[in-house]
Amino acid sequence: MGRMLKALSERALELGPVRDAEQTGNWRAATDDDYVYWLVLDRPGKSVNTIDRSVIEELSHHVDQIIDQRPSAVVIRSAKPSGFAAGADIQQFAGASTGEIRGMLKEAHLVLDRLAKVKAKTIAVIHGHCLGAGLELALACDRRIAVADASLGFPEVMLGLHPGLGGTYRSTAIADPVEAMTMMLTGKSMPAKKAKSIGLVDAVVEERHVASAVQAALYNDLPTASRSLKGHAFSVKPARSLAAKQMRKSAAAKAPQEHYPAPYRLIDLWEAHGGDAKAMQEGEIDSFAELIETDTAQNLVRVFFLRETMRGLKEGASGIRHVHVVGAGAMGGDIAAWAAREGFSVTLGDVATAPIGKAIRAAQKMLKATLKDPLKVRDALDRLVPDPMGYGIGRADIVIEAAPEKIELKRKIYAEIEPQLKEGALLATNTSALPLADLAAGLADPSRLVGLHFFNPVSRMQLIEIVSHDAISSETARRATAFAAELSRLPAPVTSAPGFLVNRSLTPYMAEALIMVDEGIPKERIDACAERFGMPMGPVELTDQVGLDIALDVSASLRERLDTAFPDSPGWLQTMVDEGKLGRKTGAGLYAYDEDGEPQKQRLDGLPDGSKDDPDMLDRLILPMLNAVVACLREGVVESEHVADGAMIFGTGFAPFRGGPIHYAKQRGVDEIVARMNELADKHGPRFAPDEGWQRLKS
Question: Strand 463-468 relative to strand 449-454: parallel, antiparallel, unpaired?
Fold first, then answer.
């Protein structure tokens, strides 16, 4: 069956004479009747091509053959339906010294330089994902033909790096240099049509027209992307310096240089040597080799593999095609819309029709923003069906309850739903803190109940906590985990415990911030302190984002159900909730909010001179969070340190360049953290007492 599926998928791709060629290593090669040498990358046993040392070494042998055979042209493409190539295999650099990495890069550059200089016309045909080193390979060719579904990008900045295989100078020489720099600095991918508009590719065609496009390129009937006036303008250093200044300003707003050096290295490189390919090549190799040794790159590479670890928790398919969501509030509506976006048939129910209409309108906005293609938006909306009568319950493979956090209400919903469920259907709850054992108490078949804790906003937060309980079946847990992955989300298996993992760990961080506000420390200073550490949002603003009412409820729940000391919420917080000041959603909370929902913060330099930072501020915020993660590991709420780190990064935005809370703790030193927490406990109270799990972490 696998061989048949592979053959069928290849039939959709124009592979010329290579379709019948024998596989030798990572490449397949054959020459057609027009004496065009087709070279197809098809890494054995992999669904996605990556570029590693073996791929480059074999490419070198093919370049030798091309030089010897002198074909009329060379076509380079991929046989993988997923795309051209997903970038470099970053594992090849693990454990290598700076000198060894520099040597590997120089060898690879020599091969691509030789490819760029062959006398035959070289044509890269790009479909699907063409990223990082894959795009750098395509840029070494004379022409680039993109299939309409292609997506091109340089994601290296996400790993604390910049392109290292010629991308820095080839992209800025071939395409609009400012657009090329923006691609590299943001790591965002670009659709084929946009890539053509900036000169990165020469033509965009449908797959069925690839052979004709190759012929047109062969006979010079394919127009080439000409270098823009911008390209000529930025060939002089003063113009580059002006642009570089703006680039540094934009980079600083998102990635401080002390934590993320790669964007600034890239800007410096282009400003100094833009237009001088040789100088940029040498600078690129040196800079890449040095960056990969930095803590930032090492930790971001770790985060990359944490993501892969969590994706790898999927075992088999979920078997879920139809999703029914009960509750069309903010979370339920977003869950339904995202499932429809990801290809599932979705019905959305609620006790009232108004919330369903509001959810559909919000879905349209989200789908337009994330899909961008009107046809894809239309198709997703066609899959999202309003269902106020709940007709979809009986047809659904999974019913997701997203009702308010009240046990009796949820139990009442389950009593109505369960008799309607078809055999094999799962029942999921999006509860953020309620015990699943309590929710399952009235079910005839509690084995099919599972927690699917999504995070807000669903369209941006990558994590789903898969919450188990004593009565869940292993098949329910397996299918729920697979379903999360099929939603393009990262599953984090946890057991039902107060706050699960993420809320249990995040709430002390937010609670301590409120205590500091109560002490008179300006909230802007508190948020700035956390943001300097690397958090995407300060804890005061985060509390407003979550909602003061929800934050109060979660804190009360944890205080009641945890054995550890948990701080009391300030009395004024309840007063604010009673007055309807709930945070961002009401336009007023700890901060006031403008029409765009942005908090109105005072400038730090405009705060009263007498308001000084608490010298313990950062540790008071961060260490209780780490302490809670350690407690969750000790209690078995989460089994793996890797999953714990990944869940906190992808569920809370914990500073990615620090590699996760447990990794950060180990790098800083467990003994130092325990000693520091004891100091804080003496000064501020027992809420800082270190969990006994720290001792296990040392072993």
Answer: antiparallel
